[in-house]
Amino acid sequence: MHITQLNRECLLHLFSFLDKNSRKNLAKTCHKLLEVFQDPLLWSLLNFHSPVELKKDNFLLGPALKHLSICWYSERVKVCNIEDWMKNSFQKDFCKRHENTVSDFLLDVCNRCPNLLSLTLSGCGHVTDDCILQLLKNCPNLKSLKLENCVQITDHTLEAVTLHGASLRTLHVDFCRNVTQAGLQRVREKCPSVMLRAERSANMIPDSKPGKRLMLEKASRKLVQL
């Protein structure tokens, strides 16, 4: 029995066990398998491990997408999370090459995936508050928002949660050094049903100009001495 003799439900089930590249390769073999590859039901869950993967033509975005994860654990991610004033020319050039990759992708998600239920971003150093705001507005069913080491996220994202996160039940902003205790407290007060986690976030030194950072470090040392 040839694989193309299976009914559509069986083929969808088989495709579900394959990664994105394997699905794409199999879809190239015949028109019937290409139709299965293009079935929105196959794309309710997407995981990416590098911004480069977002540019590959091996997946579909659509209303069926419910769960999305973009987690970049490469050592190179540390470069994007360094304050701009500390980066050398090589590091700035490296960041410039993909600074809009994740944000542009998420804006595409805003326009095409209104039924998104969960979003996890880790190490996405170029994602901004405006991007998260648009997601919250365009994906009203979002229940879980997990942000880790997204250094450009600030209290503006926390405020957006209080205004547009009616369905949200889980919010993680771990290692997001530019959120404050005041912003976290505002979420706790206005959204008591949201499970909030912010490991180390508000306790890290926020981004600032060299002079201000030096003042913060001196103040911290004085407190330790006291």
UniProtKB/TrEMBL annotation:
Pfam families to which the protein is assigned, alphabetical: F-box-like
Residue span, F-box domain: 9-46
Keywords linked to the UniProt accession: Ubl conjugation pathway
UniProt source species: Pheucticus melanocephalus
SUPFAM superfamilies per UniProt: F-box domain, RNI-like
Gene: Fbxl22
A single GO cellular-component term on record: cytoplasm
Domain of life: Eukaryota
Name of the protein in question: FXL22 protein
Keyword Cytoplasm part of the UniProt annotation: no
